[in-house]
Structure formats: C-alpha cells, structure tokens
Specification:
Largest sheet of chain A: 8 strands, mixed
Largest interface: A-B, 55 and 48 residues
Strand content of chain A: 15-25%
Strand content of chain B: 5-15%
Number of domains of chain B: 2
CATH superfamily of the largest domain in chain A: ATP-grasp fold, A domain
Helix content of chain B: 55-70%
Order of helices and strands of chain B: HHHEEHHHEEHHHH
CATH class of the largest domain in chain A: Alpha Beta
Shape of chain A: globular
Oligomer: heterodimer
Number of strands of chain A: 24
Number of strands of chain B: 4
Shape of chain B: globular
Radius of gyration of chain B: 18 Å
Radius of gyration of chain A: 28 Å
Distance between the termini of chain B: 30 Å
Largest sheet of chain B: 2 strands, antiparallel
C-alpha cells in the first residue's frame, strides 16, 4: 500500500482496506460508503476520495467554496496519482476521474455523474497510444465535453459529430453555454464539485426534501474516483457478474465478460459479450478472485449482488455492487433458497417476492401444442399475456363491442391517444408499425394488456373480423381460439414452499373454487361498479365471502382485509395470500 | 403568431381529448368554461360534436374539416425553419422519452426482458431522475414551441404536475394510461404537434 489515505478538513480518502473503520455514511454519502464497504471486505476498487457533506453545508452557508478545499482537492489528486502511477492534467499516462454526487439518501435533481474528467487535447494522444485505439480516445474526449456541458455548464449539448475537429467541439459547447470549458483539469474538477453543491439546491431537490421530510442539513458529498479502462490491452476487459442466476435463480454465479472493451461497449450492445467462461479460460486467477468477491458481497449484504467490474492490465477492479434485479422465477427461488441457507428468515423471504411476480409466473399461457400453430402475423411481443377474440380495427368499435360482452382484439396501423379507450376494452392489441418503445407498447404494458407491435404494413388490419389468439410475449397472432395452460402453484418446489409460508401467516383465508362451500359468495366480477377500486370497500360491506378476479387484485385484497371477509375464493391462491400477508405486515411495522 | 378561431380550438381540444369534459377543453384552449360550454352546445347542434354524459367527441366529418383548418392556420408555421428545427428536436426528445418509459416498465436481465415490478426503489428513483433531466430539456423546448402555439404551455404544466406527483412517490403518474400521467400527456402533446405540422405519425 502506498502511504496513508489522504485526509483533510473537507476531504476523506477511501482506504478502508487499511484496516480503518468505515467512515460515517452521513459524511461521505451512499455511493462512497458502498465503495468503502467493498474495500472493508478486502475487495479491490479503484481508489477514490470524497468531498464531505460538511463542505457542501459550508458552501450553502457562505455561498463560496470553503476555504482550503481547493488545496485539499489538489492533495487528493496527488494521492490518486500516487496510488495509480498516473498524472492528472499531464501529457503522459493521463489520470481520469469520475465525479459523482452522493447524499445519504438519493434524490432527484442532483447532478448526474461526470465521467472522464482529466482528459484534454494535450493528453488525447497518450490515451490513444495506451489503448491502441485513437477513435476511442477521441470519443472519450467527446463524451467528456458533452457531459461537462450538460451537468456542469447546464446546457443542452449540441451534437458533436465524429468528423469535426476538437476545436469545433469546444467552440460549439461555448456557443451554447455562453461559457467555455476551462483548459485546466484542476479547474474543471473544482467546477464539477461546485456543480454538485449547486444541484443540492436545485428546485427539484428542494421540493423532494420538503415532501419527504429530508432535513436540509444533510448535504451531499462528492465522490472523485479513478477511472479504470478495460480496453488497454489483451489483459484488460469489462463485465458484469450476478452472484446467482438472475433468470432462474439457481445458486450459480452468472456473468458476462468482454475482452478489451470499455463499459459502454457492453451496455451499447455494440459487441456481444462472452460468458464468464471466457474470463476463466483467459485467467483462472481473475475468475476465482471475482467469484470470491461475489460470494463475500452476497454474504455481507444477504442479497443477490449485481457487480460491475473491469480488468485493467491484469488487475481486477470492482466498480459497483448492488442488489440484483431478477426475473420472477428467480425472485421466488432465491428468496426460498436463502431462507433455507440461513441467510434470511421466513418473514424476510416473503417480503422479497411481490404478488405481481407470482401473478406473472402463474399467468395463463399457450399450451406447447398451441404455441406450435402457424401464426397469421408476427411482430415484436412487448407486453406478455395471452388474449383471444375478434379482430376489430377501430377503437370505437372495440369499445362498443366489448360493452356488449364480446372479446375483441384491437388491430391498428399505429396508435394515437384516441385509441386508448379502445385498448382498455380489448383483450389484446396488435399494431403494424413501431418497436418495443412505441406508444402502443408503453400504453399496452401500462394496462397489463397482451401487445404485439410492428407486424408490418397491412399484416393485422387485414384480419378484421377474424377470431385470433394473441401471444404478447412471443409476439404471435394465431388463427382461432387456442388452448390455454394454467400453471399450477403446487407443482413447483419453490412456489409450494412460499405458498405454505403465506398460507400459515395470512390473516385472510383463500379457498380454491373446488374447496369453497356451497353458499352465498359475492362474485365481484359480475358487478360493474367493481371496476372502480374506490368502490370495492362499499361493495364488500356486510359480505361474508367474495370471489372473482377483482378480489384477487391488490386493491381487492386491501378491501377484503378491511371488510374482514371470512374468506375469498381464488385460483391461484398464492398471489392473494402473499398480498394479504404483506399488507398486514406493512401495517404492523 | 397564428392561432385557431375559438370554435376550432374547442373542436381541436376534443379531438385531442376524446370524450373529454368541458373543463378539459377549457384548460387546453385557455378559454373560460362558460364559453367552451356554449361553443360545445353550438357544435353539437351543428353536428360537429357528439355528446355522451357531458363528454364530447368530434364527429367524423368535423375531423376532416379540422384537417383543413390546421393546414390553413399553421400553413406559414409549417414552412418556418426555426419551428421545424424545434419540432425535430421534439421528435428526438420523444425517442428518448419512449426509451425512458420502456426502461420504466421493463428491465433487461441477462439479455431477457422482464417487467419492472417496482420492487426496487433505487432503480425506480434512477429512472425518475432521468425523467427529471429529460423534463428540464423538454421545458426549454416547449417554451420555444409555445411561442408559436400557445397551448403547448398547457402541456408543459400538465407534464410538470405529473412529474411532481411521481417524485412525491405515486408511481402511477409516470406511465399509467388511465390517468394524465407523464406519458399520457406527452402522447397527447405529440398528437397535437403532429396535427400542427401535418406530419404523419412515424409509429
């Protein structure tokens, strides 16, 4: 290790690996704290220091940068230079940093991350030589200017085109911002820190704090972290690692790795990442080091981790670790497995699965045989689920025929706001133009409606009047009404365990239709008023038991609990049971 | 600055807000409710609007008339280079907005698309922060567009109201299609601008 961590009145060097205690989260903010936490587990991170929340508060009090901060920032950069063997603002081996805002609680309105600070026209050639990629060096400079214009100068950055020269880029930014980007990297750093402090007082941040009762005295910290590069040589690369498989939840690490690449290459999809086996083949040592890190982070956080990492010239760096997003099947399996492993208790396991996740797992799907039917049209399946009905080509017709009790499929070339009422009435929506981000897709998903977009000119409006089945996940439109399969919650090992836990704890009994006694059970679906969630409470007053799809929804369960129903009738039973347990647990805490 | 006559403004309002109320149309047109009410009654009598329980929609023939009105009222504007540039900037922002909404609703996990079940507040917060920054850009753009088409200012206010509700913790205000969420209002604004420019919807 190179000397002691930098420290000052306004500044803390992150060096928990040196055995020192973790700095106070309130002083250094959440992002820096998680870097320090990784270090304290003995894991390698790029070196970083933090300008503390106290400096921010002093800035807010006095309106000027705190006395001595400038000098401390310089000392901080010297420290990073010592740790990395690189030079900030120099012509050779340029040291680049990422500047991030970070309060103990994240909030909107705060400055976004500024990357690649430290690059300049003077050291562009050096970065090009190190990476062996002149285009990369230029692009790094371009992205720096763009971000600097947006987050520090607060202007919409004009498009900086690849063919233009560096002077053109700077002139464009200056014209738009009315201010130039300073030449000196140290001055850029100081301006970036000040921009973070100013963002603490942005209208939206202030509003957010007021609404959520977050004290003004919290302040934000600024993290300055060395940037590492995965594209320097054949011993470099970048990737992500999940401590368990995020799709099926199996307790096997899952990751992607791309040799000789920088983070953006993976995100942008410009290159197809390889599996982690590629890293293993390349360097068993790094592979083992990475898996050990994943294990330690998961154990320490008691949660599945999603870890971003970079290998620079054969050295592993962990950039970020956070709770992993997961597919519904993985959510269920991981929660149950981690309870069985003793990492979490049953209540915690139950809290980690949402009713929406189990609904999605148990949602009806085409039978295997039905899914082999030759489709009439195919497109981009953007909102999963299966719907069948008669094709209509106007929203008004969809609405009027649905009102008469018909199942309809709305098929249009594109959708406009006019069509939304027809979409609400339909069992599925199909369009001829547009991709996964089209308005139709956004509206379809918001309504939980099966939706296939971009089937091609004339492909679906031509089906006017035909009866079809739409699979909004697979993206197919099939002739006729196809056979549907309802997954059984008792057939899957992990669902069965979860079901047992919630059934034992639920304040509301949930019976399957074949278990329900022969007595008066209110069918909410038969009541038009039940479509309005606000009226459910009044409909369930004086009622003993209720059934129908509506009562299984989150709103329905809330109303059933409030009305103290003896039981409800539903199939599957897991979603309403889980909702009931979570709602009552939410009330107790 | 060109603008539609009051009757056409009211018809336009109900073309954007199909089955909207008198209050909706008053808010969009900037006319007072009594005036909108009188004009709507006149339009119903003249076969230009249909009314169902105090909600209005434009009849098919009046829709065709409206197209001609747009061409006439906004003809000069359609040739205005500055306006067209701003509109193109809107289309670009529109692409960003749709991508953002898609990221709000879905996640890519290990190469597969799954629904965002909103179980991770950090993820949601990051998207709302992105929306917040997109809104800053949009706000400046809408101000410029409103110099030519004043009612654009109404959408700006509605967008901000939706954003603030989402920031306050009610996540429905991002993309729920059944309320005046950010996406709903944006979708209407887009439709409005398409009518002004006479351009076809690209998807």
């Amino acid at each position: 290790m190179v000397g002691a961590a930098v420290t000052g009145r306004w500044l803390v060097g992150l060096d928990a690996a040196g055995g020192s205690a973790l700095p106070d989260r309130g002083l250094i903010g959440g992002k820096a704290w998680s870097i320090a936490h990784m270090q304290s587990l003995g894991l390698p991170t790029p070196p970083a220091f933090v300008v503390t929340t106290e400096a921010c508060l002093e800035y807010q009090r006095s309106g000027t940068m705190p006395d001595g901060l400038e000098t401390e920032l310089q000392a901080g950069m010297r420290w990073l230079e010592g740790r990395s063997g690189r030079r900030f603002g120099g012509d050779e081996k340029p040291l680049l940093v990422a500047v991030r805002s970070g309060a103990a609680i994240s909030m909107p309105g705060m400055m976004d991350t500024l990357l690649n600070l430290g690059i300049s026209e003077a050291n562009l050639a050096a970065l090009a030589a190190e990476s062996g990629d002149a285009a990369f060096a230029r692009d790094t400079y371009r992205r720096f200017l763009q971000l600097y214009a947006e987050v520090v100068l607060g202007t919409d950055c004009p498009e900086l085109k690849c063919g233009e020269n560096l002077g053109d880029w700077r002139a464009k930014v200056e014209r738009n911002a009315g201010r130039a980007v300073p030449d000196d990297s140290m001055r850029q750093l100081s301006a970036a820190v000040q921009a973070v402090f100013d963002s603490w007082n942005s209208r939206r941040a202030r509003r957010y704090r007021k609404h959520h009762g977050i004290p003004e005295t919290l302040g934000t910290a600024v993290t300055v972290q060395l940037m590492v590069f995965g594209n320097f040589d054949g011993q470099s690369g970048t990737g992500v690692l999940f401590s368990r498989n995020p799709l099926d939840g199996s307790p096997v690490p899952y990751g992607e790795y791309l040799r000789r690449a920088q983070g953006e290459d993976v995100v942008s999809g410009r290159h197809t990442p390889q599996s982690l086996d590629d890293l293993h083949a390349h360097s068993p040592r790094l592979h083992a080091q990475l898996l050990t890190a994943a294990g330690r982070l998961e154990e320490s956080n008691r949660e599945v981790q999603d870890i971003e990492f970079t290998v620079q010239r054969g050295t592993l760096y962990l950039l970020q670790s956070r709770t992993a997003k997961r597919a519904p099947a993985a959510a269920v399996r991981i929660a149950v497995d981690m309870q069985r492993e003793g990492a979490i208790d049953i209540a915690e396991a139950i809290s980690r699965v949402t009713p929406a996740q189990v609904r999605s797992l148990l949602s009806p799907r085409l039978t295997a045989a039905a899914a082999r039917t030759t489709p009439l049209a195919t497109g981009n399946g953007v909102s999963p689920g299966v719907g069948a009905g008669v094709v209509v080509t106007s929203a008004d017709e969809a609405e009027s025929r649905a009102k008469r009790g018909e199942d309809v499929i709305l098929a249009t070339a594109t959708t406009c706001p006019d069509d939304v009422h027809g979409m609400i009435a339909a069992r599925a929506v199909v369009t001829e133009f547009g991709g996964s981000t089209s308005h139709a897709a956004v509206v379809g998903r918001s309504l939980g409606l099966p939706c296939v977009v971009g089937c091609g000119a004339g492909a679906v409006t031509a089906l006017d009047g035909e009866t079809v089945t739409v699979d909004g996940g697979a993206g197919g439109v099939y002739p006729g009404v196809l056979e549907i399969d309802h997954p059984d919650e008792r057939e899957d090992e992990w669902l069965r365990q979860l079901l047992q836990w919630v059934a034992e704890r639920s304040p509301l009994r949930v019976l399957r239709p074949d278990e329900a006694p022969e007595e008066d059970i209110l069918d909410l679906d038969a009541l038009e008023a039940a479509a309005d969630p606000d009226r459910l409470a009044e409909l369930l007053r004086e009622v003993e038991a209720a059934g129908g799809r509506t009562v299984s929804s989150d709103e329905g369960i809330a109303a059933a609990l409030a009305a103290k129903l003896r039981y409800i009738v539903a199939e599957p039973t897991l979603p309403p049971l889980l909702a009931a347990v979570q709602m009552s647990a939410g009330k107790e805490s | 600055m060109a603008d539609m006559r009051e009757m056409h403004s009211v018809l336009h309002a109900f073309a954007i807000k199909k089955l909207g109320s008198i209050e909706d149309a008053a808010a969009l047109t900037g006319l007072d409710e009594a005036q909108v009410s009188a004009l709507a009654a006149e339009a119903v009598a003249g076969g230009r609007l249909n009314e169902v329980d105090g909600r209005y929609m434009v009849t098919p023939t009046a829709q065709i008339t409206l197209k001609g009105v747009y061409a006439k009222v906004y003809g000069t504007l359609r040739d205005d280079a500055g306006f067209r540039e701003d509109y193109e900037a809107f289309e670009r922002t529109n692409d960003d907005l749709k991508q953002l909404m898609t990221d709000w609703q879905t996640l890519t996990i290990a190469g597969e698309t799954v629904a965002n079940d909103h179980s991770d507040p950090d993820y949601d917060q990051r998207i709302i922060s992105r929306l917040d920054r997109l809104h800053d850009r949009a706000e400046r753009l809408l101000e410029r567009l409103a110099q030519h088409v004043p009612r654009v200012g109404y959408y700006g206010n509605q967008l901000l109201a939706a954003l603030e509700k989402a920031e306050d913790g009610d996540l429905r205000w991002v993309s729920d299609a059944t309320i005046a969420s950010y996406h709903t209002v944006w979708f209407e604004l887009h439709e409005d601008l398409l009518r002004v420019t006479g351009l076809a919807r690209r998807e």
